[in-house]
Fold this protein.
Amino acid sequence: MKAKIKILAFNCSLKKSDPEKNSSTRRLLEECLVAFAEEGAAGEIVHVADYRVEPGVTNDEGSGDQWPELRQKVDSADILLIGTPIWLGQPSSLAKRVLERLDIFLEEKNEKGHMPSYGKVATLAVVGNEDGAHYCTAAVFQALNDLGFTIPPNGMTYWVGEVMGSVDYIHLSKTPKVVAQMTKSMARTSTHLARLLRSRPFPPLPPD
Amino acid sequence: MKAKIKILAFNCSLKKSDPEKNSSTRRLLEECLVAFAEEGAAGEIVHVADYRVEPGVTNDEGSGDQWPELRQKVDSADILLIGTPIWLGQPSSLAKRVLERLDIFLEEKNEKGHMPSYGKVATLAVVGNEDGAHYCTAAVFQALNDLGFTIPPNGMTYWVGEVMGSVDYIHLSKTPKVVAQMTKSMARTSTHLARLLRSRPFPPLPPD
Amino acid sequence: MKAKIKILAFNCSLKKSDPEKNSSTRRLLEECLVAFAEEGAAGEIVHVADYRVEPGVTNDEGSGDQWPELRQKVDSADILLIGTPIWLGQPSSLAKRVLERLDIFLEEKNEKGHMPSYGKVATLAVVGNEDGAHYCTAAVFQALNDLGFTIPPNGMTYWVGEVMGSVDYIHLSKTPKVVAQMTKSMARTSTHLARLLRSRPFPPLPPD
Amino acid sequence: MKAKIKILAFNCSLKKSDPEKNSSTRRLLEECLVAFAEEGAAGEIVHVADYRVEPGVTNDEGSGDQWPELRQKVDSADILLIGTPIWLGQPSSLAKRVLERLDIFLEEKNEKGHMPSYGKVATLAVVGNEDGAHYCTAAVFQALNDLGFTIPPNGMTYWVGEVMGSVDYIHLSKTPKVVAQMTKSMARTSTHLARLLRSRPFPPLPPD
C-alpha cells in the first residue's frame, strides 16, 4: 500500500479570499489538488492573505503574528506547493514573505545536518495575464532549494496569456490542454519523489 | 542656480526601526543621503516596516492602509531610492510590496501618455552578509523601469561580504572605499539625470 | 536643429541570417528602426551570429575574433538596442556573449571616471513564443546598467504568445497594437534621453 | 552493493583550458569530483571552451559542431554538474550555450512522456570574485528543471568574495570550510537522489 502523501498549498494572492468569487490563482491550485488526489496525495490550500503573516525571519514575530500556525502546516507536509500570481513579472510579495519566514530552516539543522525541509518536495503554480512565469520559477525554486527542498522534474505548472493580455485564467471557459498536462505531470513526479524520499531519506550530512 | 532635487529613500528592512540601534540598510541609506547632499539633493528615509502597507495594487487598500501617505511622498520626489536587505539572495518582501503598490502607475497615464514616474529617476542600495546584490538589482530595476522610472548609469550601491559571511555592514568600522565610491557616483549620476529630466521633460508618447 | 542620433541594434538570434527568410527577432528590430527613424535616429542591425565572436572579456580574443569590428560600432552608437529571442525563459547565449565582451568597460574609465558607455542609452527588444520577456529585461538591463548605460522609461518592447504557444512573431499577419505602441514609446523616450545626455553629459565622477 | 553513479561536469569558463595553469572554476569542480568519489560517484570534467559548440537548439548544428560528442556524455551521466564563473552577476555565455543545446529534450519525450533527463540529477558549482551566485543558481536551476532534471536539496556549491573583491578562488591558500561543507553536502544529496531515481524511476506521465 502506498503511503499517503500530504500537500500544503499556499495561495499567495494579494487579495483576501472571497467565498463569493473564485480567483485565478485559486482555480489553478484547485486543479492541482485534483491532480494530486489522483496520485494519492491530499491536502489543503491556505490563503496567506487571510492570515497575519508579519515580516521577519523568526518563527514567531509576536504582536498577533499568525505564521506559527502556518509553520506547523509546513512541518507536517510532504509537498509544498507555492501558488503565486505574477506582479511586475515576478512572484507576489506574499510569496516572498512566506519564503522569508522559512529562512529559519538554515538554523534548524538536526543531528544529521538536515534542515526541516530535507525530504520535502517543492512545487509551484503561477498565474498571470502575460509573461513572468519563468522568472517566478527561477526566484521561488532558487529560494526553496537553498532552504533544503527537493525539486522534481517540471516541478511547476502555469498559465500566462499573450503579451499585455487582459484575460484572466479564472475567465477561461476551459483549462487549456497544455496546462492540464503540466499540472498532472507535476503532481505525478512530485508525489513519486515525495514517496521515495520518505522511504529512503537523505543520509546524514558531513559534520561542520 | 541649480534646481533643488528631492530624494525619497524607502528602507525596506524587515524590522521596525529602533532608535537605540542602527541597522545595515539604514547605515547605507544614510551614507547615500550624505552623498546626495553634496550634489544638492535632499530628502528623507522612510522606514517601510513602521507603516502598515497592505498587500494590493490600488492606491488605498482600506482598513488602516497607510500607503496613501507614502504614495504622496513618491509623487513629490525626483529620485526614488530603494534600500533593501538581501534575504535568500533576493530583495525583501517589503521591497516587493512597495513595487506592487506602484503597479497602479500603469493605469495612471496622463494626457501625454506618461506615467506619474516619467522624469523620475530610480536608484538602489542593497546590503547583505554575502551574495545577492546583482539579483536584487535585476529584480528592482526591471520592475521600476516597467513602471516608468529612468535608471542612471551604475544606479546602485551595495555591500556584501564573502560567501556565507556573518559580518554585518553595520559592524564594519569603516565604509569600504569601493562602496563609498559607488555611493557617490550613484548620487552624482542620478542627480544630474533628475535635473536634466526636470528641465527637458520627455515628449508626449504616441497615442494608443 | 536636432542632433542625429545613432542606433546600433544587435540581433542575438542563435541562427545565422538568411536573406531568403526573415525571422521573429529581425522583424521586431526592423520595426524598432522604423520607429527610431520617426524620432530622427538611424542606424543598423548587426546579426551577431554572422560574426565570429569569441568567448572572453577582452577587446580582442585573437584567432579570427571579429568582435573588434563590432566594438567599434558600439563606440560610435548613441543608443544600443539588444534584440534577443527567448530560450528557456532567458536571453540567448549570444546576448550574454555580447554583454561579456562589454565587461571591459569596467576597466576603461577615462579621466572623468566614466566608462565608454557613459551617455549612451540602452534599450531592448525581446521575442518568444511564450513567457520570459520580463526575465530577459531584468538580466539584460542589470548587466547594461552595471556597464554604465542609462535606461529610459519603458526601455523595452516585446512580444510573447500564450503559455506553451507555438505561433511565431514572424507569422503574425499584423503587429499587435500594444507592441507597436511599446516600440514607438521606447524609440521616443530613448532618443530624447540620448539627445539630452549628448548636450549635457554626466559630470566627472569622484576620484577613486 | 551500491550502483556506480556517473557524473558529468561541464566547466563553462570562458577561457580554453591551460595545462600549465589551473583556474578557479576548475579548482572548485575538482573539489566536487573528490567529494563525489567519497559517495561512490565518478566522472569527468569537460572543458566546454575546448570544444566547438555552435549556437542553436538542435543536436547537430553542422559545420564542425562538436556538441554531438558532448551530448553523448550527457546521455550517459546520472548527475550533471554545471560549473560556471560569474560574469556581470550571471552565468557565463557558455553555460547558457550548453543549456540551449539541451532545449531539444523538450521534443525528445519517450513513450512514457519522459524527457531524456528524467531520473537525472542537476547540480551546480559557481565561482566569482564577488556576488552573483544566487542569480546563477536561479537561472541555471530554472532552465534545468524546465528540461526535466531533478534538483537535490542544496544542490549547489559556490565561492564569492566580498563586494568588488579582486581575489580569485584559485589563489586561496585553502578551501574555506563553508565551501568544503557545501561541496560535500551537494555530492551526498545528489548521489543519494540519483541512486533512488535509478532504482525507482518516475512513472509514465499522463498522455498528451
